From TrEMBL:
Gene Ontology molecular function: phosphatidylcholine lysophospholipase activity
Secretion signal, residue range per the UniProt entry: none
Gene3D superfamilies: SGNH hydrolase (3.40.50.1110)
Record's protein name: Outer membrane protein
Organism expressing this protein natively: Adhaeribacter aerolatus
Superkingdom assignment: Bacteria
PANTHER family: SGNH HYDROLASE-TYPE ESTERASE DOMAIN-CONTAINING PROTEIN, THIOESTERASE 1/PROTEASE 1/LYSOPHOSPHOLIPASE L1
A Pfam family per the record: Lipase_GDSL
InterPro entries, alphabetized: Ester_Hydrolysis_Enzymes, GDSL, SGNH_hydro_sf
Length: 440
């Protein structure tokens, strides 16, 4: 059991051959086709738009955010500068993050929280965390807010809950301005909109449980999503600006949900004793316990508890001490999330088509090119002896957010969608120029 608890670099890694990679072009063609105006590009979204990585928002991640990469490519078509709410060099570590600092003698990863050079203001923290150093420039163009959901975009009090949003607001706007109002009237000429993941993510990472007192921790209703998403698009297209929208990837395909398989835990249980198996709790009732099935998803946050001895009973191995509901996304909950995401993505795609916007099928990209056909798992022993795959990884050490290389690949998906929709020839970027996991 020790091996599972300690052997978990919760990443999936990129395993593509850069010499034959289709993600970048050798030439630097000039944009052609419809005359787009990239003079002022506005990026709207959540943590992915902000450049969140390794479990935090910090300066290096911001400088490798996909909107920043896009803005550099837009300059080949007359695009202007791109203002981001960067943390200063003195506070470069922003909110703090997780850093890979080495490996144990057994070859297992050691993750250490970075707690120096943070951008914290002190005082009473918000429900979402400590307050961060303010950045309220009215010319701001990267409006990505970690934690932002389509549902939350229409709630005025959200600035009192989320420190990343509060950071961007004037004090007088914190309790009155919605995110939708915040992104409106920016005089932009082109925009990207990638929102919706957080309308299911917290529910999923909490094992299909809604947190009491948190209205944003459940699954957003389809009706609420449609209304709020369409109003976001209306705000962004009000001045005639063109843009690109992106669908939501399959949440349950990311490492947070795939690193620990039922089969791997079952093998450990059987090795401990043939009478053991993997048991999960599916509800609050005394009989809501069953043997885990392959379609059940054991969450990454259970890695330290599996096999733990509780009153001489190993956790997860018997029906008397099953994995908790918050440690597993059972197959019924996973199916519910899949259906809700399908409905959300239909709304996003429809909004894009109705408004003649480019649409990035990010669900297909993550399931296909970016994940399913090009990655392998390296959370077993032997990682320390073969560090190269770690450096190439698409996902950062939090198991949810990309590395800079992952963001470069995402930027290419946006660029290709723009080129298809508008007949342009914006050059793609070379992912090899961006790092994967930062190796010590």
């Amino acid at each position: 059991m020790k091996n599972l608890r300690n052997s978990y670099l919760f990443i999936l890694v990129l395993a593509f051959n850069l010499s034959s990679c289709k993600f970048f072009e050798k030439e630097d063609p000039k944009p052609v086709g419809e005359d787009l105006n990239f003079t002022k590009y506005l990026a709207v979204g959540n943590s992915l738009t902000a450049g969140y990585t390794d479990g935090g928002l910090y300066r290096e991640g911001q400088l490798n955010a996909y909107p920043y990469i896009l803005a550099q490519q837009f300059k080949t078509a007359g695009g202007g500068d791109f203002l981001q709410p960067l943390f200063s060099e003195q506070e470069a570590n922003g909110s703090g993050y997780l850093k890979l600092t080495g490996f144990s003698p057994a070859g297992n990863p050691i993750l250490t929280p970075v707690t120096t050079n943070l951008a914290l203001r002190g005082g009473i923290p918000l429900p979402g965390g400590p307050k961060l150093t303010k950045y309220t420039d009215v010319n701001l163009q990267n409006l990505g807010v970690p934690g932002m959901s389509v549902l939350a975009s229409g709630v005025a009090l959200y600035g009192t809950l989320n420190p990343y949003f509060e950071r961007l607001l004037e004090d007088t706007d914190v309790i009155t301005k919605t995110y939708r109002n915040f992104i409106s009237n920016r005089n932009h000429t082109f925009f990207s909109l990638w929102l919706g993941g957080n309308d299911v993510l917290e529910f999923a990472t909490n094992g299909g449980e809604t947190k009491p007192g948190n209205p944003f921790s459940g699954l957003t209703s389809i009706a609420d999503f449609r209304e709020n998403y369409n109003r976001l698009v209306e705000a962004l297209t009000a001045n005639g600006a063109k843009g690109v929208v992106a669908t939501i990837p399959a949440i349950t395909a990311i490492p947070f949900f795939t690193t620990i398989s039922v089969a791997s835990v079952r093998a450990l249980a059987k090795a401990a004793s043939p009478q053991y198996d993997v048991y999960i709790r599916t509800g609050s009732g005394s009989t809501d316990v069953r043997v885990a099935q392959p379609e059940d998803l054991i969450l990454l946050n259970a890695v330290g508890t599996i096999g733990r001895m509780d009153m001489q009973i190993p956790h997860g191995y018997t029906p008397d001490n099953p994995l908790l509901d918050i440690e597993v996304l059972d197959k019924e909950e996973a199916a519910e999330i899949k259906a809700r995401l399908a409905a959300f993505n239909n709304i996003i795609t429809e909004a894009g088509k109705v408004n003649s916007l480019a649409v990035v099928d990010m669900e297909a990209a993550f399931n296909g090119t970016l994940v399913a056909n090009s990655i392998l798992s390296i959370y077993q022993q032997g990682v320390a002896q073969n560090p190269a795959p770690i450096r190439n990884s698409l996902f950062s050490v939090d198991g949810i957010h990309p590395t800079p290389r992952g963001y470069a690949l995402i930027a290419n998906e946006f660029l290709q969608a723009i080129n298809r929709q508008y007949g342009t020839a914006l050059p793609l970027v070379n992912p090899a120029n961006y790092r994967g996991i930062a190796f010590p």
